Amino acid sequence: MERTQVTSEILKAKRKLNLTWGDIAEAIERSESWTATALLGQATLSTEEAEKVGSLLDLSEEIVETLTLVPYRGTTVQMPPTDPLIYRFYEILLVYGPAIKELIHEKFGDGIMSAIDYEMDIKKLEDPKGDRVIVTLNGKFLPYKKW
């Protein structure tokens, strides 16, 4: 089964059962952000995790098996993105990316922030002037190696 079909079936089941990403994450003992990432087709579940998700969402065996396959990452969003929310993150990197790069290099040296040894969290901060979105990107620093 194509991964886009799997994602569609997962989203349908999630809506039908009125579950949140947090509910599903709790069932597989993973973070909410990683669970959403995996079930949207960008990470691999273990057999045990896939079976728990399959049971919770009443998914077919074919879908459960697909969740354990290594995905083609980064292929679900066209570039530049057209969805307004995703585009704002693209815009953030276009505007603030050079400053982020400079600050990381100043504080850590010549290297990159890993998107593999990485964690992400999304929080809501209630504010009388309008609720705030707090996005935490937490990646291991990987220095460039000399040889």
How does the SSE layout of this entry go?
Elements lengths: L2 H14 L4 H8 L3 H11 L4 H11 L3 H6 L17 H25 L2 E15 L6 E12 L4
Antiparallel strand pairs: 1-2
Helix pairs in contact: 2-3
Would you identify the CATH H-level superfamily of the largest domain? lambda repressor-like DNA-binding domains
Largest sheet: 2 strands, antiparallel
Q: State the name of the first-level CATH class of the largest domain.
A: Mainly Alpha
Order of SSEs: HHHHHHEE
Q: How many beta-strand elements? A: 2
Overall geometry comes to: globular
Query: Averaged pLDDT, please?
Result: 96
- Could you tell me how far the N terminus lies from the C terminus, measured between alpha carbons in angstroms? 44 Å
Q: What is the count of DSSP helices, taking H or I runs of 4+ residues?
A: 6
In CATH terms, what is the architecture of the largest domain? Orthogonal Bundle
Q: What is the subunit organization of this protein?
A: single chain
Adjacency order of strands in the biggest sheet? 1-2
Rg for CA atoms: 18 Å
Question: Percentage of helical residues?
Answer: 40-55%
InterPro entries: Cyanase (IPR008076), Cyanate_lyase_C (IPR003712), Cyanate_lyase_C_sf (IPR036581), CYNS_N (IPR048564), Lambda_DNA-bd_dom_sf (IPR010982)
Keywords: Lyase
GO molecular function: cyanate hydratase activity; DNA binding
Domain Cyanate lyase C-terminal: 75-147
